[in-house]
Design a protein that fits this description.
Two copies of one chain form a homodimer.
Chain A: E1 4-9, H1 13-23, E2 30-36, H2 40-50, E3 56-58, H3 61-67, E4 72-75, H4 82-91, E5 95-98, H5 106-119, E6 123-125, H6 133-143, E7 150-157, H7 164-167, H8 183-186, H9 189-199, E8 203-212, E9 221-230, E10 235-241, E11 249-255, E12 258-263, E13 266-272, H10 276-282, E14 292-296, H11 306-320, H12 331-347, E15 351-352, H13 357-369
Parallel strand pairs in A: 1-2, 1-4, 2-3, 4-5, 5-6, 7-10
Antiparallel strand pairs in A: 7-11, 8-9, 8-15, 9-10, 11-12, 12-13, 13-14
Helix pairs in contact in A: 4-5, 6-9, 9-12
Chain lengths: 388, 388
């Protein structure tokens, strides 16, 4: 096999984006051969824009799979459907690249991971931000030991401004039944993933404070402050909202050897000449602190190849065994954090990880079933360039 | 009266600092006329350094008060003693400028405030950071309405590095009996005061997570993350530690009209051209956010006159009725936040404000009584220049 034939499941906002770069041959050794969507207008969009391409179009999954026109699928359906669609693809023997989030509740995502393992097929997730050299460098500085043991991970990511008009653009948006959450499930999956990926550890417990419909007429969370504790004693914060402008995106990780801050697309390492624990053991003169160097760390090529980079890596993995940058099984990590933050707010209590997946599912269903939320919606065709 | 004669109660680290600038006549219309301290070596320090000055020295409070050599006192005794010493001074009919913190638990501070009110004398507190034009400007931008309604107040103040050697320099340091707390009571009183002063509001409830002796061999807190909620729905964070280097001092306040950040001794106002609530009402096109201007706000003269500025203001208040920059009665606010953070950690629960002052006192006594903490101490004469 010298190329991977790709089928796309769902050609909404993200599916269209994947279609565009694949049709333009921006992923080498990949060919877009099939698209399935139950919405005829979306298939019309493909016909109108890429009618001359050899993409087979399907309005149902049975025909799509019967075609055998592809080797791998990209799942770009609504959030809730990701695990179900992926599991079906695995059952048909296909490699799967799933859009983020991995799903809406961890139980379904665990089942997806089990299906992937059983199938033996390639399984990736569209964590395109893992291609950003800024976060790769941070992970490098942590995992290589340059920063020393991590002590604090504070991410303030409040620049996800969304107006009421955005929420009103689709009736499914920002509802428990439609999306399964708000800013955590829709805007933050990348940051929740990068938070654990760059620190190279998951918290052991979470205490979160969510505001539901605090800034907008929606039923899900649009403001979150979450505090976490790690096994090694480190602590962390994750602060996010869609209600503030201009907001902030500042991620600070401190460790035994200093601190690293990513802000304004720059990474700075304040590096201690002597690791703090050693300084503390040796210093005998009261006031005093380790000498600190402000180090500008070279980061080349940000923000990286993003979506097409993940797809390229997925294709290379299938063809050449290149390690996956974002293995699909890891999608459960960020979702666990997201679910834990909801659950902690709902129970007004600590949530230990791994979370009780059945309890989360039950409490989510309660919210779906008791929802009386009716929005006046106005369908808008939105440009997702610049979103992730 | 054309000058205020000042007596200093306690000539330890801070009392010496007040002595120095008063002897050098750096506060106009003020004269240092008396000092009392029960430690003879401290009085020797005054004799050796300022023997030629006309300062009367006393080794007991009875003689100090009998001298009637002053019009006002500065209380610079250990933390616990501040309210008791101030109450005694009011009972003798003197004006009082008390060092920070106002006290260690709010019950004693409330009693001090009541004594002050009853006395009718001037009552100030050494919140010297209120003289810093940076924080004055922030308060100005909030109280004048420039920022609009406050939505979030996040202060990361983790640059209070203290080694074990510092804690070992005095047996009373960082013990429940000696100081009544750690980083919150010793290092952070200014920030806790400025936090509420600049935002011009107190939280209504607090949920805090303290690490006690996390980084150092001490029994009190050396690491704190506190989440707060305000009456108007705003939230806030206060993150502090003595265990990190180089640490961070970054205070961000966001509101309806943008956000203000103080970091690296600079204040920046990201100002929205249209207030966010108005933009949200008027915007009809899905994605989109208010136009934002990065405004450099002039701040002249930072860090301001600090301690001598507070003393000058106190003197001017007595002589001319100049309003106090830091009225003594306001010392209870920051202490309430500090006590609430302890209490929330001890009870692993929310604490509503005003706190239950008797419960706090009881829980503090439990810690004092059950303390088995013995430190190997090594008396160090420390230079407090550069501390606050």
């Amino acid at each position: 096999m010298d190329k991977v034939r790709i089928g796309i499941i769902g050609v909404g906002n993200m599916g269209k984006s994947h279609t565009e770069y694949l049709v333009k041959n921006q992923v080498s050794h990949a060919e877009l051969t099939a698209i399935v969507d139950t919405d005829p207008s979306r298939l019309d969009w493909v016909r109108n824009n890429y009618g001359s391409s050899n993409i087979q179009l399907f309005d149902n999954l049975d025909a799509f799979y019967a075609s055998k026109a592809f080797d791998a699928v990209i799942v770009a359906t609504p959030h809730y459907n990701h695990p179900e669609a992926a599991i079906e693809a695995f059952s048909h023997g296909y490699h799967v690249l799933v859009e983020k989030p991995a799903g809406v509740y961890t139980r379904q995502v665990r089942e997806m991971n089990e299906a992937a393992a059983k199938s033996g097929k390639a399984f990736g997730i569209m964590f395109n931000q893992r291609t950003n050299p800024l976060y790769q460098k941070l992970r490098d500085l942590v995992t290589s030991g340059e920063l020393g043991e991590v002590r604090r991970t504070n991410w303030i990511i409040t620049n996800w401004y969304r107006s009421q008009s955005y929420y009103d653009s689709g009736g499914w948006r920002a509802t428990w039944a439609g999306e399964g959450g708000g800013v955590l499930i829709n805007q933050d999956p990348h940051q929740l993933d990068l938070w654990q990926w760059t620190a190279d550890m998951m918290p052991k417990r979470v205490r979160a404070f969510c505001g539901f419909g605090k800034y907008r007429n929606i039923e899900v969370e649009d403001d979150v402050t979450a505090y976490v504790e790690y096994e090694n004693g480190a602590t962390g914060l994750f602060v996010t909202t869609t209600g503030e402008a201009p907001g902030t995106n500042r991620y600070e990780v401190s460790g035994d050897n200093g601190k690293i801050v990513i802000e304004n697309d720059q990474l700075t390492f304040w590096r201690l000449r002597t690791p703090e624990p050693q300084f503390n053991r040796e210093w005998k003169n009261g006031f005093g602190q380790p000498e600190c160097w402000k180090c500008e760390i070279p980061v080349v090529g940000a923000p990286g190849p993003q979506h097409k980079g993940i797809t390229q890596n997925f294709v290379n993995h299938i063809l050449n065994g290149t390690p996956l940058l974002a293995p699909g099984e890891e999608g459960i990590k960020g979702l666990t954090l997201s679910n834990a933050m909801h659950l902690s707010s709902w129970t007004d209590d600590w949530v230990n990880l791994p979370i009780n997946e059945d309890l989360y599912y039950e409490k989510l269903q309660e919210r779906i079933n008791s929802s009386t939320f009716k929005k006046e919606t106005k369908e808008l065709q939105m440009d997702v360039k610049g979103t992730h």
